[in-house]
Amino acid sequence: MIPTETQQERTIDHTILDPDALGPILTRRFKAYTPDLRRSIVQLATTAGLLMLLLVVMALASQWSYWLTLLLAIPTSGLLVRLFIIQHDCGHGAFFRSRAANDFLGRAISLLTLTPYASWSLGHAAHHASTGNLDRRGRGDVETWTVAEYQGAPALKKLSYRLYRNPLVMVILGAPINFILLQRLPLGHAGRNRMCRRSILSLNLALVVAFGLACALIGISLVLLTYLPVIIIASWIGNWLFYVQHQFESSGWERNSDWNFHVAALSGSSYFKLPAVLQWFSGSIGLHHVHHLCSRVPNYHLQACLESAPELRLVTKVITLRESVDCWQLALWDERRRLLVRFRDLSLPVLKDDDLKACA
Question: In degrees rounded to 5, what are phi and psi of residue 94?
Answer without folding.
Answer: -110, -10
